[in-house]
Amino acid sequence: MANQKNNIIIEQSSEDNNLPKVFLHGPPKFSIVLQPKPSHNFHILNPSSHPPLHEFIALNPHHASSITAVVCTGGFPVNAEVLQLLPSLRLVCTPSAGTNHIDLFECLRRGIQVSSAGNLFSEDVADLAVALLIDVGRKISAADRFLRSQLQKPWDFPLGSKLTGKKIGIVGMGRIGLEVAKRLEAFSCMISYNSRNKKPLLSYPFFSSVLELATNTNVIILCCDLNDQTRHIVNKEVMLALGKGGIIVNVGRGALIDEKELLKCLIEGEIGGAGLDVFENEPHVPKEFFSLDNVVLSPHKGALTSESLIGISQLVEQNLKAFFSNKPLLTPVI
Amino acid sequence: MANQKNNIIIEQSSEDNNLPKVFLHGPPKFSIVLQPKPSHNFHILNPSSHPPLHEFIALNPHHASSITAVVCTGGFPVNAEVLQLLPSLRLVCTPSAGTNHIDLFECLRRGIQVSSAGNLFSEDVADLAVALLIDVGRKISAADRFLRSQLQKPWDFPLGSKLTGKKIGIVGMGRIGLEVAKRLEAFSCMISYNSRNKKPLLSYPFFSSVLELATNTNVIILCCDLNDQTRHIVNKEVMLALGKGGIIVNVGRGALIDEKELLKCLIEGEIGGAGLDVFENEPHVPKEFFSLDNVVLSPHKGALTSESLIGISQLVEQNLKAFFSNKPLLTPVI
Predict the structure, then answer these.
(1) ipTM rounded to 2 decimals
(2) Domain spans of chain A, in order of start
(3) Catalytic residue among B253, B259, B261, B317
(4) B2-120+306-324 adopts what CATH topology?
(5) Domain B122-297 adopts which CATH fold?
(6) In whole angstroms, how far apart are CA A142 and each of A220, A266, B140, B234, B329?
């Protein structure tokens, strides 16, 4: 309530103040990432008190030229059309690690700076990737479901497979991939990877295609960006190469996998299992997954913990403060 | 079917052969750990073709003196009463890491050797401990259940807590404890431990009581044996010391925790959550657990994977072969 009151006071004064405007482009709850403070050198237009961006600009055309920065989340694109609406925009700040909802090329062309979460979420996402992997292999969620169903024949539960020593293929060897590798090395796993380029400082075996990586490993973990080159990078051929005992973990973006083919392969047992934090058409999760025991489903929460939420709020604020003080961004994308 | 046939043939010849007898003391399915082979220098009396030990001896009193070895699993005790029945017993071989179902003192007194799984399961148990920990903290099974319930509001799912950097207290720093520590170090966790004695070669901080350990950590992982000293080693006081954000993982034995107090603390939010592979009165799992979202339940399968089942079958066989060839046991307990 105090914050709400605070919002209103600041917003009432906003029409006459000269502070640059920052539009929060996300669902009403998105205001949690940036709460107004008296010390801010910018003014927040937030979605809990304003209509969505398009409507807001239609209702308040004078703001089209006052909005200098946008803070946006996945599902709320900053594409050419949005950029067209905001001729004074100079900063796009996303609290996510991925930037596939932002037209980076168009931002670059217009001289708009972009900041992201940088490496803030890498550890939490890597933790989840490892958990999903053991969860699928050792059938933990399935066993928990089994016990709760009160069938009460614990000894009849099927065996899982061992993680220690498995051959792991990581797709995308950025910070998240590296954190996953570091963790799985402690499980005596053998790491290899695929990424845009071979990393000269890494001694892990490099495969130049995901198909080759899948052919040579027991597990594929997707930690890469979604873009035109990586869309459906895991297709039927890759899944068949991974094979009947193989596990796929996706903590990147849903469309990295051909979801229809994944479902078929899981139903027909062409792969062993999958741990999915992301889906092709979020928040939609295909119903066919719900009856499968060889899949663990997670509602896109790889990055989100109580701790990381505090961290990202601070980082978004720091990037905005830096920008409006003409200092370099802390976590620039471009 | 082939094995079954083989059993019968060997058993038919058993009455006249002079091979020492090995009794499989477990449920019918337990025969999976030791299948008869022509090369064996012993003869197997297995529970899929025989009644339980007491009944078997009552029906076949001449076998009382022919049974030289027993292979036994948890829930099938080898106590003073059983030892009394088998005056010729010289070896007790358990395929488990724990030996709390065996009266070791009485075995020692009678000059009976005992072998266990040794370190065979350490990696698999450690993998499960880590998975249960992340599962509870990051609410993975709960989230999977949430999605499958088709409420379909993924964004409303509550946040979990970060694992990276947490303070972890390990109770029992044997091989499993060490494997857990090795894995969690890769998550940048800070490890400390409690065990019977301080280990001079370990640099992790040592606490001489579980209460002190719980007071100084966010997580307690139970990897110790169950015995008179460790029964209910985690009591209400320990749980309150661990606190509202604290997590308990038990991959040891159920009775290490006062289960009634655990349930109360979970229901009342006095601790954050628990990941339980073991229960106080297995296979009974208290129904009150089933409605709790801050617990992950696993049907005592820490040690069991497809790979470890093959490994333990080989180890049991090797111990028996060694024993009957007057060679040292591979994994002696006493």
Answers:
(1) 0.88
(2) 2-120+306-324, 122-297
(3) B253
(4) Rossmann fold (3.40.50)
(5) Rossmann fold (3.40.50)
(6) 21, 15, 11, 27, 38
